[in-house]
Amino acid sequence: MWLDHHVRGFEALEHLNDQARMPMHFRPTGREAPQVDIGGIRSPRLAIWSVQSSTGFESAPSEGLDLYSIRIPLRGGVVRRTASREFETVVGTATILPANEIVATRFQPGSDILNCSVGGSDLRARFEQLEGERPSALRLQPSTNLEGPRLQALVHTIRQIGDHLGTPAATLTGPLLMDLLLNQILTSWPRGQAQPADGSLRAADKAVDFIEAHLAEPMTIGSVAAAAGVSLRTLQSAFRMRTGKTPLGYILDRRLENAHLELLANEGRLPVSQIAYRWGFLHMGEFARRYRERYGAPPSRTGRRSA
Questions:
Q1: pLDDT at residue 138, as a whole number
Q2: Residue 132 pLDDT > 80
Q3: Is the pTM of this model over 0.85?
Q4: CA–CA gap between residue 125 and residue 122 (Å, rounded)
Q5: Arithmetic mean of pLDDT, 193-202
Q6: Domain parsing of the chain, residue ranges
Q7: Where in this chain does the record put each HTH araC/xylS-type domain (predicted)?
């Protein structure tokens, strides 16, 4: 099945959800009319497609999918959320997650993302062929830097297969290419890390709760560690394993989200600088840069749209 969709506006996005029979649901992330271009090919066992969006959007997979989903940013990035963690993926990195663990994926404005989904049963069967044993649970490291020739070769293979699928030659060579892809995923992608101890998870959860309760107040990473009852080093490690971010990165992201929501509801009553200062952004240039990277437009434009 060929994928060739060009979304321009809210109604077109709803039409994509209703008519395109995609294994996911799309939703806008703001008031700006969504613009999304999707191109590629999909079969029951393998799908490779590209997504470009100047506005950004979110997607959530359909329930019951036995797939492993890979996202590789070529420009911009995506944030993938599971029930317990969030993975921010930018150029030079990639994620692989079981579809049934993904809550939502947020495509950032101005992004160009290479996507690949392979059947879970295919990947597990290939693991058994390679290792000689059936995996009780196939765990790959959710996020990785695309460093080294083997991971670069995997990205190249995904792009080449995407170009090759659907051509007359694919009938003969498709199975061989599928073999190559499965082998490269299992031999080049880092295996999953050991799960953090329950104590570390509890400490990270306490830290998140403390941050959320004091987000609009002055705080230091030291005060967060003290509230969680751990050292700074333990906090950094546990927090990254729990959320995929550093404590500082999480605080800045959450404050930026609150500033964005306040700008949307502002209706022109307050200047952008006052809202930025309220959420701890003292340098307007840095605030505008972070805001534009996250939401695809300067904060002043958001204020004008909401006015």
A1: 82
A2: no
A3: no
A4: 5
A5: 62
A6: 2-188, 198-306
A7: 205-305
DSSP alpha helices (H): ranges in 132-220? 149-164, 170-188, 198-213
Give me Rg for the CA atoms of the chain.
21
Instruction: Identify the CATH assignment for 198-306 out of 1.10.10.60, 1.10.3720.10, 1.10.530.10, 2.70.150.10.
Output: 1.10.10.60
CA 211/CA 268 separation, integer angstroms: 29
On whether the CB atoms of residues 287 and 299 are closer than 8 A, the answer is yes
Backbone angles phi, psi at 44, to 5 degrees: -60, -30
For 297, the token pair is: 């437009």
Judge contact between 250 and 290, C-beta under 8 A.
Answer: no
Q: Which of 73, 70, 59 is nearest to 104 (CA)?
A: 59
Q: Report the C-alpha gap between 225 and 217 in whole angstroms.
A: 16
What amino acid is encoded at 105 in this protein? T
Please give the backbone phi and psi of residue 239, each rounded to the nearest 5 degrees, phi first.
-65, -40
pLDDT at 200 over 80: no
The pLDDT score that the predictor gives to residue 43 is 79
Residue 6, beta-bridge partner list = 37
User: What token pair was written down for 279?
Assistant: 């959420």
CATH classification of 2-188 is 2.60.120.280, yes or no?
yes
